[in-house]
Design brief:
This is Tellurite resistance protein TerB. The protein has 134 residues and is an all-alpha fold. Helix content is 58%, strand content 0%. The radius of gyration is 14 Å and the shape is globular.
């Protein structure tokens, strides 16, 4: 899968809005992550105003859930700084994807801010899948 920052930010927006509300804190973090990834405030505002559909979270396969989790964490780390509020937000989104929030700490150990540096994705996925809620 090719890493598309805008597409993954759109998924992040959809996940944040899956409870029918993007809280102001979530919006602020989405803007921060967007800015860190070279996406302008205007573009993020437009994406927040009308996110492209990704389908129901319930219909995502476990592989798709992992991919979104992986890219979410990569987006969070992209600017080389990780704030506690970003970790909490990622844990919140991970739970919406069906993972226990501890998955963020586990996967974060193996995801790098530079998308050209790749971890053993199969190993990371195996570890992440242990955090899926039954």
């Amino acid at each position: 899968m090719i890493f598309d920052k805008k597409a993954e930010l759109n998924v992040l927006i959809n996940l944040a809005a899956s409870d029918s509300n993007v809280a102001s804190r979530e919006s602020k973090l989405i803007h921060t992550i967007g800015k860190a990834n070279g996406i302008s405030k205007e573009e993020v505002d437009a994406m927040l105003a009308s996110p492209k559909p990704i389908g129901s979270i319930d219909t995502l396969t476990n592989d798709e859930k992992f991919e979104h989790l992986y890219y979410l964490i990569q987006l969070m780390k992209m600017d080389g700084q990780v704030f506690r509020s970003e970790i909490v937000f990622c844990e919140h989104i991970a739970e919406k994807l069906g993972f226990k929030k501890g998955v963020v700490a586990e996967v974060s150990q193996h995801v790098y801010s530079d998308p050209t540096i790749t971890a053993d994705r199969d190993m990371v996925k195996t570890k992440a899948m242990k955090f899926l809620k039954a």
